[in-house]
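Notebook, bench 3.
Goal today: get a predicted structure for Glyoxalase from Hoyosella rhizosphaerae so we can plan the truncation constructs. The sequence was checked against the plasmid map this morning, with no discrepancies at the termini. Length recorded as 164 residues. Pasting the sequence as submitted so the record is complete.
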Amino acid sequence: MSGSNGSENSGASADATVRKYPRITPYLTVDGADAAIAYYRDVFGAEEHMRLVGPGGLVLHVELRIADGAIMLADENPEWGTQGPKALGGTAVTLAISVDDVDETVARAVEKGATVAMPVSDQFYGDRVGIVEDPFGHLWHIATPVEQLSDEEMRRRFDDLFTE
């Protein structure tokens, strides 16, 4: 398998394809992987790079690239004990994505079936942000940077939130 930092793979053959990911890559479980793949393509411009389909047509693994990041996802699978957020009654995780136009992206997400959890608005930390729940139960913090702030200015604005 791999060393503590995930950088070694002693079982790989010399001609194996090397896939590079950020140190952390979200792995989503959904009820309806095919629909989720289409949704992430239509809303975020995701490009599919690899898909593994098991018996019965379940998508057991798919790799999607979004801008310079990646997500992986799979169908819910009772044999493996995996469930998506809707089956679990919600999620404790919010996926953050930076886009060129948050207003347009949130509108497209809603048009494709998302619900707004937080309307788009300017935030103290210099981003314009909206949060949506996608049709599969995953939360997305969608942001466009609008100001470049120093840590000091961000802290001042944060403190001001609690003194006004």
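The helical segments are 33-44, 85-88, 102-111, 151-161. Confidence is low (pLDDT under 50) at residues 1-13.
Flagging this for group meeting.
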